[in-house]
């Protein structure tokens, strides 16, 4: 898919993951999807974050420059995609929870999901499968290379639902999940 708007610059990602999670909603880009649901993880102060116990081999990307992919493997079957936030040395990331498919739907279906188009990318594991992500994608720079995020029209505050994170067991009460209200692709 041709990139129709400029990629987001590195400075866009260097900020609090909670603010970045909200502002990532909407842009279209190289992933051939519009981001419609995100969750923020604020690093070492966040018991639900992979960085909570400090830097490890697995989470080292979270402590590096902002604007990189943090891909991890979970439940023995899913690759989940996050966007790193904050300045180097400070961990932070935003999990991409759902996208609206824009292009490449047949490729997405060929990778295993044959449901309705609006549900193809309605969860972090579905995104990983549809885009063929693997641990080899961990650390990829969103400002250049095969993965990218492009600027788009901002989503109005009245169109954004803010709620508790889901699918975790710690710090679930934090209002760090952001979703586009009108999207039928938001995870359940």
Task: Give a structural overview.
The chain is of the alpha+beta class. Helix content is 13%, strand content 21%. A 6-stranded antiparallel β-sheet has the order 2-3-4-1-6-5. Strand 3 and strand 4 (93-101) form a beta hairpin. The relative contact order is 0.25. The model is unreliable at 27-31 (pLDDT under 50).
Report strand order across the widest sheet.
2-3-4-1-6-5
Q: Encode the helix/strand succession as letters.
A: HHEEEEHHEE
Shape: globular
- Content of β-strand: 15-25%
Distance between the termini: 28 Å
* Helix content bin: 10-25%
Structural class: alpha+beta
Low-confidence stretches: 27-31
How many beta-strand elements?
6
Rg, nearest Å: 15 Å
Main sheet overview: 6 strands, antiparallel
Describe the structure concisely:
With 188 residues, the protein is of the alpha+beta class. The protein is 13% helix and 21% strand. The chain has a 6-stranded antiparallel beta sheet with strand order 2-3-4-1-6-5.
Layout of helices and strands, plus pairs?
Elements: H1 10-13, H2 17-23, E1 33-41, E2 69-74, E3 78-84, E4 93-101, H3 105-110, H4 124-130, E5 160-163, E6 177-180
Antiparallel strand pairs: 1-4, 1-6, 2-3, 3-4, 5-6
């Amino acid at each position: 898919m041709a990139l129709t708007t400029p990629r987001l610059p590195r400075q866009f990602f260097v900020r609090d993951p909670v603010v970045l999670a909200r502002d990532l909603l909407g842009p279209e880009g190289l992933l051939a999807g519009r981001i419609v649901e995100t969750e923020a993880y604020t690093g070492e102060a966040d018991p639900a974050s992979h960085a909570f116990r400090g830097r490890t081999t697995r989470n080292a990307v979270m402590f590096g420059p902002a604007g990189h992919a943090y891909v991890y493997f979970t439940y023995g079957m899913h690759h989940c995609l996050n966007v790193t936030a904050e300045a180097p040395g400070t961990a932070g990331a935003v999990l991409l929870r759902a996208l609206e498919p824009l292009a490449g739907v047949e490729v997405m279906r060929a990778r295993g999901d044959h449901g309705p188009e609006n549900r193809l990318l309605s969860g972090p594991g579905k995104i990983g499968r549809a885009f063929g992500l693997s641990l080899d994608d961990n650390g990829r720079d969103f400002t250049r290379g095969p993965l990218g995020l492009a600027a788009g029209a901002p989503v109005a505050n009245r169109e954004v639902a803010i709620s508790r994170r889901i699918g975790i067991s710690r710090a679930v009460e934090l209002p760090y999940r952001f979703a586009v209200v009108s999207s039928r692709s938001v995870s359940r």
